[in-house]
Specification:
This protein has a single domain, classed as 2-Layer Sandwich (Alpha-Beta Plaits), CATH 3.30.70. 26% of the residues lie in helices and 43% in strands. A hairpin with a 4-residue loop joins strand 2 and strand 3. The chain is globular and about 35 Å long. The termini are far apart.
Length: 92
């Protein structure tokens, strides 16, 4: 059954390859949705949909970060799947 998460990641996540990292793992984990920077609060925002096991694996990988990132907080909220995504996108 398809689940959806809305994820916010805070810390040093800009200009360290973090969006690209999340994008790569979204594709590898068979998750659809998008990742984007939210300049208003300095977080990375992720909307992700997929099977529960894939989403759990994806969120664990997102929480690891890149060698140059430093995650101070990660908020994961359950959301309603929209079914409008066909792949995982990196929004610039």
């Amino acid at each position: 059954m398809t689940k959806a998460y809305s994820i916010r990641i805070y810390g040093r996540v800009f200009n360290v390859g973090f969006r690209r990292y999340v994008h790569r793992y979204g594709l590898q984990c068979n998750v659809v949705g998008y990742v984007e920077n939210d300049r208003a609060d300095g977080s990375v925002h992720i909307e992700a949909e997929g099977e529960e096991a894939d989403l759990v694996r994806f969120t664990l990988l997102c929480g690891e970060g890149t060698p140059y990132s430093f995650i101070t907080n990660m908020k994961i909220e359950a959301a309603s799947p929209t079914g409008k995504y066909s792949d995982f996108q990196e929004i610039r």
